[in-house]
Design goal:
By secondary structure, the chain is an alpha/beta fold. The protein has 4 domains: 3-133, Rossmann fold, CATH 3.40.50; 147-310, P-loop containing nucleotide triphosphate hydrolases (Rossmann fold), CATH 3.40.50; 314-394, Helicase, Ruva Protein, domain 3 (Orthogonal Bundle); 401-444, Homeodomain-like (Arc Repressor Mutant, subunit A). Helix content is 46%, strand content 13%. The chain has a 5-stranded parallel beta sheet, sandwiched between helices. Helix 4 (85-93) links the parallel strand 4 and strand 5. The longest helix is centred in the N-terminal third of the chain and has 29 residues, at 106-134. It is elongated and about 95 Å long. Bound molecules: adenosine-5'-triphosphate and magnesium ion. Adenosine-5'-triphosphate binds at residues 142-144, 170, 172-178, 283, 323, 359-360, 363.
Amino acid sequence: MSVILVVDDDAPTREALATGLKKLGHEIYLAGTGAAALDEVRHHPVDLAIIDLKLPDMEGTELFGALRILRPEAIAIMISGAATVDEAVSALKRGIYDFVTKDFRMGDLRKVVSKALETQQLLVENQRLREALKDRGPTGRIIGRGPAILKVLHLISQVAPMKSTALIEGESGVGKELIAEAIHYQSPRRPKPLVKINCGALPEGLIESELFGHEKGSFTGAIQQRKGRFELADGGTIFLDEISEIPPATQVKLLRVLQEGEFERVGGTQTLKADVRVIAATNRDLEEEVAAGRFRKDLFYRLNVIHLVIPPLRDRVEDIPLLALHFLDKFCLENDRRPMGFRPEVMEALKSYYWPGNIRELQNVVERAVALCASNMVEFEDLPDEIRRHSPADDKIVLPVGSSMDEIERQAILQTLRKTGGDKELAARLLGIGLATLYRRLKEMELKDVPPEES
Ligand SMILES: Nc1ncnc2c1ncn2[C@@H]1O[C@H](COP(=O)(O)OP(=O)(O)OP(=O)(O)O)[C@@H](O)[C@H]1O
Ligand SMILES: [Mg+2]
């Protein structure tokens, strides 16, 4: 049961609203002025306010502003005599949930109210999750509460103080770099540099000189002496990303730095020393690379002193809502928008998707949704195709009770065709009708063709 406040200066309207809404089984309070409304808000935990746009003592939107301060989790529906599109749009922009005109039908209003209350419950739930995001401790930027990520966080705090080499293994986008950063910034090496190098992004001939530097004239193009990353990282940490891509000759030299802390610049004779902690990352199974003879076994053991395996996002579904909300808040803030929420079917879809691109992909999906989303809730339609297609929600046809048979049939045909990607034979078979019948129905419905899903 929720608490609804109806604010309208016209007594008959107020009473009519109260009578109509009582059927939903909620607690209802009435007010005729803004001041009286605020008094009610102070005394009752209002979840939803239905506010007349023009009140005798203040504008409806002013009352909404005050309501927001007193009850941040409450939401509002505005009523107005003759709403212009402009008024409606500006109301929605202020965070008002919906807008109805005075000539509403009770049945419609009840639907809007039910939907609004569902949204309000979600906002409360989202708020609870956001609170959980707040107290995040030392590894602050790493979001997640599930057992898998907690284990990783625990390991980070254990290994950070040591100098031991760490190998981070995990699929693309699971957060390997973020975890390397966490290790460095929790270690005593924090004031010294964290130097990153992506071994997969450098041509074979350049890796060595990038890592160890080169002397002037050591190869064509080496017009000056240059320090390598190991020298630059002295006292700090070096992050070797995509370690499996290091060519065999460089693997030998890397092993020597790890064992002796010594190396020479390319073309140089002087032996240099550097005190560097090495963190390596790979999205391949390095043991498999060793078995296949592509990666040195001794180097593998030297790197693998501390082994961190970051599970893919699909194996830590419990973290998806937290991460999704974290990114939602981030992009809303960046784009100067009010914090939004996710509809339940959106969260379900996010939780059941298999996330081949892991957290990076989730981040992109949320960013895109924020850009597309027109209201203050992310809708199923704001998700990209590949996620909607995999969602259980996409397999259902939801129609209001009381829809005409024509409409039910039309939706059944349309949605089935969408699911089959426009394949009419398959759709007819699924619908249990002949192909000729399907064509006839489509023609009757004046749907010449149904656009296939874009992929
Ligand atoms: N637990 C997490 N909490 C918050 N943000 C995260 C988390 N894990 C990853 N991210 C974010 O996801 C994105 C991808 O993470 P990161 O670059 O660390 O992944 P990666 O494993 O190094 O990927 P790749 O293998 O593609 O290099 C980054 O923007 C990172 O900040
Ligand atoms: Mg990375």
